[in-house]
Write a structure and sequence with these properties.
The complex is a heterodimer of chains A (about 250) and B (about 260). Chain A is mainly alpha-helical. Chain A folds into 2 domains: about 1-30; about 45-250, MetI-like (MetI-like fold). In chain A, about 80% of the residues lie in helices and about 0% in strands. Chain A has helices at about 5-25, 40-50, 55-85, 90-105, 110-115, 120-145, 150-155, 160-200, 205-215, 220-245. The mean pLDDT of chain A is about 90. In chain B, the strands form 2 sheets. Chain B has a 6-stranded mixed sheet with strand order 6-7-8-3-9-10, with helices on both faces. Chain B has helices at about 60-65, 105-115, 120-135, 150-160, 180-195, 210-215, 250-265, and strands spanning about 15-25, 30-40, 45-50, 75-80, 80, 90-95, 170, 200-205, 215-220, 230-235. Chain B has 7 helices and 10 strands. Chain B has a domain at about 95-165. Chain B has about 260 residues and is an alpha/beta fold. Classes of the chains: A mainly alpha (about 250), B alpha/beta (about 260). Bound molecules: adenosine-5'-triphosphate and magnesium ion (MG). Magnesium ion binds next to α1 of chain B. Magnesium ion binds near residues 59 and 172 of chain B.
Chain lengths: ~250, ~260
Amino acid sequence: MGGTLGLKLARVAVVVAVFLLWETLSRTGVVNPRLLPSASDSLAMLGELLQRASVRNDLIVTASEVLTAFVLAVPLGAIIGFMIAENRYFAEVAKPLLFFAFSIPKSIFLPMFILVFGVGFAEKVGYGFFSTIFIVIMSTTAAVESVKVEHLTVARSYGATTAQTAFRVYLPSMLPVLLEALRISMIFNLTGVMLAEMYASRDGFGHQIATWGENFQMKQLLAGVVMISVIAIAFNELIRWIETRCSHWRT
Amino acid sequence: MQPLANITPLKPAGAVEVRNVGQVFTTSTQDVVALDDVSLEVKPGRFVVLVGPSGCGKSTLLMMMAGLRQQTSGAVLINGAPIPKPDPNRVGVVFQEASLFPWLTAEENVEFPLALRGTPKAERRAKAQDALKLVGLDGFGKRHPHELSGGMKQRVSIARGLVQDPPVLLMDEPFAALDEQTRMTMGDELLRIWAATGKTVVFVTHSLTEAVYLADEVVVMSARPGRIVDRLTVSLPRPRTYDMLSGDVFGGLRDRIWRHIRKSA
Ligand SMILES: Nc1ncnc2c1ncn2[C@@H]1O[C@H](COP(=O)(O)OP(=O)(O)OP(=O)(O)O)[C@@H](O)[C@H]1O
Ligand SMILES: [Mg+2]
């Protein structure tokens, strides 16, 4: 991440300040501690939760759903996106339809997934996949379109084979946009799976969060929120780090 | 100067022959005759410049010489043989701006044609170094294109075009995106490189001054359908110098080209 030492310190200071404010509001009773347990108590609860076998199990369930949906949606979406971008006719037909599909809130389809798949792994993976694939298709199309015709002509004029053109021109041209797509897809994917778990599920971390909310277990709920936030931010930053390493030439 | 120690043996310059070439583009609305019965012969080692109004088919003709496009009728021969597909061993191409791969360093860009043919790394590096030295970019090999000026980028493009020692070098408006001062310098640089390598060069430009300054011969084309309307031999001595620009010979040639272009525009 960019920025001088001063800027980095300022960012850390903001985060610390938020936690301090949270702590003070709760400890002084300005906000009812039953509604907002203190930051230190919530973080302690987080440590305790991580020890619990049931919680770890839920995390594993959620992680496997998220990964399965991701591993299905990304390659399939990428292939469809590539075909759309490379075929004029396909593109003309599919592009507006994709924009339509993309603009519809995916959550309204969740009940249908439950009806078709029943509550469980398949339903949650299916809904995660459905939440993700459109953004993957659209990003891949954009990535293919970011390949410059001039570069393709250069490769052709030096006698590049189809495979060489794919690996030496398409892939490096598309890489920055593709990594960005990967990052944003994960946000959509995670949102989809969590929503499915919170809406109707017997297990998974989203289900836990929903249950804690319903039972007014604020400490557990806040600990869960912090945990998922940290995991999501970590994944996002990892891809962003790879992105900056791979696309230093894009200025 | 021993510019190409690692690019030896220096292949002899090549001949380009264009025989009664026609090109028709079929679009959904109409058929466009881009080139009509164009014939042109470029002797080995000559520097020939193509000029003509925009859309007259200069790039199309050059693409045919590069094997990047096939003519509708007629024949294009490089060193006596047709060129049905790109052949980097016979023809090197230098494109307009922005044709370098931004994710590769200058050196890797120059090595690109060699990498495609599986040339061993060490040999590739040595040849790229030589080519970069030849274009005056010794020591800039590790930079990425965005760290180079416009003129330097085009030098890298020229090095890439020359790295396989092709007998013919084709250049489509290579300096069009440069400012006038850089453009003048690059013209002198190109003439120096040409003298050092003895390549046959076919060069497309919109600048009449550049055309006369660089060429042994200027080929003037007319607007659609593209035809050759005049061929001028530039008898000014070499090396060309800046003083020649204001001379009568230079002015006379430039006027003659301009009159053709004005007529057909
Ligand atoms: N793929 C194509 N399909 C249809 N028409 C084309 C195609 N390529 C070129 N043309 C037409 O052929 C003519 C010649 O094009 P070309 O690019 O060779 O001209 P040019 O002399 O290089 O022009 P400029 O000086 O602007 O670069 C133009 O009228 C152009 O519109
Ligand atoms: Mg052109």
